[in-house]
């Protein structure tokens, strides 16, 4: 299964706040309740959606969508400016609740985290009971809802938390794991984005059972080293520990495109959206980075990266966009089509809480999100 021989199964919870930024705004402003709202930039700013309320999601509006497209889908959409200082404070409240139950907490962002409750502070044998208690505490203390997934590893817990949203609790038990993954559509696999899913569909892979038919060598040959990850999760296996000391080495975002981008204007517009997403994450984490890296993958799969380092940390979205665009125009092959663009800030300023263990962290965590892997 997803554990080492002779060792007990782990009990992992993934907690995901429901439409976090939008829910905070609806909590604090009664006029927004029951209304389709998005948090993020406006169409006039050529902004992007950072979060959408469930009322907005009914119109097909989702995170990272250009604000212009969101407004076209819902003309009466309400745009709300992000208040990251408020989101950070609520996130601190939620993490304090987690800390009552376990020391093994791995935050992924302001609104989600993994918890290992195999050995927990209450001596409670039931991970389900702990997840229920945490969700109750969050609602009581923040007036917000959270969804939880409970299973034997991070991959399954992450998928489970998305199965009964909003305000849900979903459990994948050890004896259910193999059958659950077998019937799971590839599009629902955490770590497989739209572009990779489309490629898998072309190869006749539509479910976990069909993915399981492929050898590890063939998956690596088709998808690169991430193929090893696909091979394991198709069998419900994920041995990654919940790591409370994980330090981000970069803050970034990337996106694959289908069809490929052909014009400079398309690439510049796409880069603008990526810069806004990176800027939002910088605000979330209150970080700055001295190095900005542009990643370009061409239609022939040739990949290049170009970086710029400066004396002062880069924080503002406008600076990220300006530097990224300059790197793009200086280094892009004007004759080539582009299938992926990415921006990442690295050489980050450490947070005070990281200083005590920064020398001990050996794991490498490129935190640029990808829709392709």
Give a verbal description of the structure.
By secondary structure, the chain is α+β, with helices and mostly antiparallel strands. The chain folds into 4 domains: 12-17 and 91-176, Alpha-Beta Plaits; 20-84, MutS, DNA mismatch repair protein, domain I; 177-233, Orthogonal Bundle (DNA polymerase, domain 1), CATH 1.10.150; 250-360, 2-Layer Sandwich (Dna Ligase, domain 1), CATH 3.30.1490.100. Helices cover 37% and strands 22% of the residues. It has 14 helices and 12 strands. The chain has helices spanning 20-28, 54-57, 67-73, 84-98, 127-142, 154-161, 177-183, 194-202, 208-212, 216-223, 226-233, 264-285, 317-331, 352-355; strands at residues 12-17, 37-40, 49-52, 78-80, 105-109, 112-116, 146-151, 169-171, 250-261, 289-298, 303-314, 338-348. A 5-stranded mixed β-sheet has the order 5-6-1-7-8. Strands 9-12-10-11 form a 4-stranded antiparallel β-sheet, covered by helices on one side. Strand 10 and strand 11 (303-314) form a beta hairpin. The protein is globular, with a radius of gyration of 21 Å. The two termini are 23 Å apart. Residues 1-6 and 353-373 have low confidence and may be disordered.
């Amino acid at each position: 299964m997803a554990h080492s021989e002779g060792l007990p199964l782990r009990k992992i919870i993934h907690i995901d706040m429901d439409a976090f930024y939008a829910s905070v705004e609806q909590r604090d402003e009664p006029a927004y309740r029951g209304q389709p709202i998005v948090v993020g930039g406006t169409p006039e700013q050529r902004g992007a959606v950072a979060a959408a309320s469930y009322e907005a999601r009914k119109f097909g509006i989702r995170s990272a969508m250009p604000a212009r497209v969101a407004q076209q889908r819902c003309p009466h959409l309400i745009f709300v400016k992000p208040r990251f200082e408020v989101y950070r404070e609520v996130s601190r409240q939620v993490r304090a609740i987690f800390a009552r139950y376990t020391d093994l907490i791995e935050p992924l962002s302001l609104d989600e985290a993994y918890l290992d409750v195999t050995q927990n502070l209450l001596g409670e044998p039931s991970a389900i009971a702990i997840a229920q208690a945490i969700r109750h505490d969050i609602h009581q203390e923040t007036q917000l809802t959270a969804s939880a997934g409970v299973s034997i590893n991070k991959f399954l817990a992450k998928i489970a938390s998305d199965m009964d949203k909003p305000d849900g609790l979903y459990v994948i038990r050890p004896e259910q794991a193999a059958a659950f993954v077998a019937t799971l559509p590839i599009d629902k696999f955490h770590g497989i984005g739209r572009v990779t899913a489309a490629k898998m569909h072309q190869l006749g892979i539509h479910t976990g059972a069909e993915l399981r038919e492929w050898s590890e060598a063939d998956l690596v040959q088709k998808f690169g080293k991430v193929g090893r990850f696909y091979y394991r999760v198709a069998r419900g296996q994920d041995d990654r520990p919940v790591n409370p000391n994980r330090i981000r080495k970069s803050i970034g975002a990337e996106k694959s495109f289908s069809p490929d981008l052909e014009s400079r204007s398309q690439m510049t517009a796409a880069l603008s959206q990526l810069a806004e997403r990176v800027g939002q994450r910088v605000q979330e984490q209150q970080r700055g980075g001295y190095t900005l890296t542009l990643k370009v993958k061409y239609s022939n799969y040739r990949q290049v990266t170009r970086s710029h380092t400066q004396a002062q940390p880069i924080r503002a979205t406008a600076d990220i966009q300006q530097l990224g665009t300059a790197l793009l125009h200086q280094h892009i092959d004007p004759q080539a089509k582009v299938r992926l663009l990415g921006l990442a800030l690295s050489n980050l300023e450490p947070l005070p809480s990281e200083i005590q263990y920064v020398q001990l962290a050996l794991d490498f965590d490129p935190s640029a999100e990808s829709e392709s892997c």
